[in-house]
Each structure stands twice: as structure tokens, then as C-alpha cells.
Write a structure and sequence with these properties.
This protein is α/β, with parallel strands linked by helices. The chain has three domains: 47 residues, Transferase, Pyrimidine Nucleoside Phosphorylase, Chain C (Transferase, Pyrimidine Nucleoside Phosphorylase, Chain A, domain 3, Up-down Bundle); 256 residues, Pyrimidine Nucleoside Phosphorylase, Chain A, domain 2, CATH 3.40.1030.10; 90 residues, Alpha-Beta Complex (Aldehyde Oxidoreductase, domain 3). Helices cover 45% and strands 15% of the residues. The chain binds uracil.
Length: 437
Amino acid sequence: MLPQWLIEKKRDGLALTADEIRWFVDGFAAGSIPDYQMAAFAMAVYFRGMTGEETAALTRAMLESGDRLDTSSIPRPKVDKHSTGGIGDKISLPLAPMVAACGVAVPMISGRGLGITGGTLDKLESIPGYRTNLSTAEFLGVVRDCGCSIIGQTDRLAPADRKLYALRDVTGTVPSIPLITASIMSKKLAEGLDGLVLDVKCGRGAFMQTREQARALAESLVRTGTAMGIRVTALLTAMDDPLGRTAGNALEIGETIDVLRGGGPADVVELTVSLGAEMLALAGLARDAASARHRCQEALASGRALDVFRDMVRRHGGDVQAVDKPERLPVSACRHELRAPAAGVVVGVDAGCVGRACLVLGAGRTKTTDAVDPGAGVSGLVQRGERVEAGQPLCVLHAARESQLDEAQALLQDAFAIGASAEAVPSVLERLGESDQ
Ligand code: URA
């Protein structure tokens, strides 16, 4: 077999066999198939797509390029959540301890922010001392003892994906449903899960801008996970407006702590509880959807989820006092309040604009090697449907330098639509996967 034969086959729109895909991925991971041939292959997949069988074979080959965590010593159902990413999407942070408090084990391997979407690891690292690079043994120990742990990807988990993702990033081949599916699912399957809940975002602040694209991705993820032997549910959720009132690393930790104390913005609480109820259902820990939601709400209201979060932070070396006194979290030197030009109702807040503003404020990165400013971002965001008076703050910008505030302010000029009335959008638009209990 020669690599170019398989590239040509895909280029001409034919389906590859599982053996051919495995051979190609193994060769790429081992270095015998060079980057330029993998780049051509990825472009052929981008244009020609893959069947469900091909996508599952690609996922399996990428998964088996590395290790799979052995979670068998953890005596709880193992269920995780993956979000395709959005602005202000801090849901993993209250969700993991909330479902852990209900009896689920969550071995969560997360990523860093890139482009306009934030990353769970950057948010956690804004807690002074929090280590995201635990060894596998430490990680499994924290999951066993606390019920959840959140770390970064290790070199041994789906290494073929790490290499392929870097190549896709510079060859215009990221937005391909089979490639995204194999990338996400190979990493999640490596966690040794029984179940996975997917939060597939759609809207102007998301990777997938339309409902059709988001649904196609969700269907591909659910089909592939099911073919690989785990229970999978996907929620399609709205990402036209930012989630909650903050976007930025330490600012989102502050909002997470509010939610774990039983408060926080209603949209963040609602999505956390909706995803948590799905996780409990996959774990077999709830009689029905209503009791699953009730258990999640009770874990937040009682402070048990906050206790789990505190334990997890302690075990990761983080400053536990910052959990009880969020004013100890890092803050940026400069602030600016953006004020409403006129009175009215907030019709919408453009999540894409807020994401781009966060990037220039220093909360995000454009290259994987960039450092992030933990205190930077946006707080006090008004939300769709709220009434504002002329001159009232729409949000507060935080950055290290005044020049960053000026640039972000210009980007936010048209982000806030103010009018006579606003259309309410439910946070969960559709549900796919296992039928309701
Ligand atoms: N996230 C991933 O992990 N992989 C992709 O291909 C896209 C988003």
C-alpha cells in the first residue's frame, strides 16, 4: 500500500476500509507518513466527507494510537461532558463537582482556550497554585477520592489527534464533521468512560453557526460514540449570547463559585442542571428526568457541590481560600464601564463580539504558546430581556493596559442590541441520543 493510493481514493469520493484508515493513521503517528500526505488526506476528507463506518474507524485508530485510562478501580459510573465551546462557557466547572456530589465519577480531560472561546484549564489555572498537569495515577486518585478531577491532555492520550489537530489548524481542515468527530471522541473515549454528554453549541459565538450544522455534528458524535460502545446523549444549545455575566478566566471562576453557593445567573444554573441531569441518567443514578434535575439542584443548594469543588482544588494544589474568598482571585489593573447609549430592552448581546473583545483584553490566545492574563475579561454583562436605562453599565472591561480597553471597547460598539422587546431563547434547543427515561 502507498499513502498516495489512499489519498487518491478519498479524493475520488470512495470509502476507505477500516484497515486502510488504521494503516494511514499508524503511519502518520509513527512518522513514516509525512505531514504533507496527512494534510492532503485531511483536505480530501474535508471535501468528500466520510461514512459513519469510516468515521468510527478513524476514531478507533486515533484512540488506539495512545493509552486508554484504566478507571476500573473507581467504584462509580464514569461519565463526562464535552462542550464544543462558547463564550462564557464555564459550565464544566460547576457541573463536574455537582454530579460528583450525586455519585458520578468525572475524569475530565480539558483543553485551553484558542481563538475566541475560553478553555477550562486556563480558568482553573487562575486559581493560584492549581495544577492541571497531574500524573495519571494522581488524576485517578483525585477522581476516586473527590468524585471529579480536571486536567489537561497528556502526551499518551490520543497522540495521533494531537499531531493531526496541529496540522488541521494550519491547513484549513478544522471544520470537517468526520475530522472533528474523530478528534473529540478519540480523546473522550481514552478517558475510560461509561457515558458521555455532549453540549453542541450553535449560534454566532460558536464553531457551528447554524442549527443544521450543529445537528449534523451532534448526530455524528452520538453515532460514533454509540458504535464505540459508550452511552452518549447530545444537547444542542444556544450560543448567540454569552453564557452568564462573565467571560474571562478568574472572572468565570468567581461566577462558578456563585453557582456552587446556590446563586449565579439563571442561564448558567439552568444549563448546568440540564447537562447534569443527562449525566445522572447515563450513570443510571436517577429514576426519571425530574428526579435527576432535583438531585442536581439539591447538590448546588446544599453546598455539597461546593465542598467537592473545594476538595478538588485542594488536591490540585490550588489556594482553597480563593474558593471561599473569591476576592483573592487575580484582578487586572485597568477597568472600564461600557454604558448604554439609550434606554430600552436588551434584544441580544453578540457572543462573537464579546469573545473577540476578551481576546484583545488578554483573556485568550491566538497561538497555543501565548500566555493568558488571568484577571482579564468582561464582567457584569447585561442579558437578553433585561431593561437598561441610558448611561447604565452594559458591562465592565478588565485588562492590564488602557490601550487594550480602548480596542475592546471599539469591538463592543455594536455588540449590545437595545430595542423595544426581546425574544426569549431556550438554552436547550434539541436533544439527541438515548431516549428519555
Ligand atoms: N475540538 C477538538 O478537540 N477537535 C476538533 O477537531 C475541534 C474541536
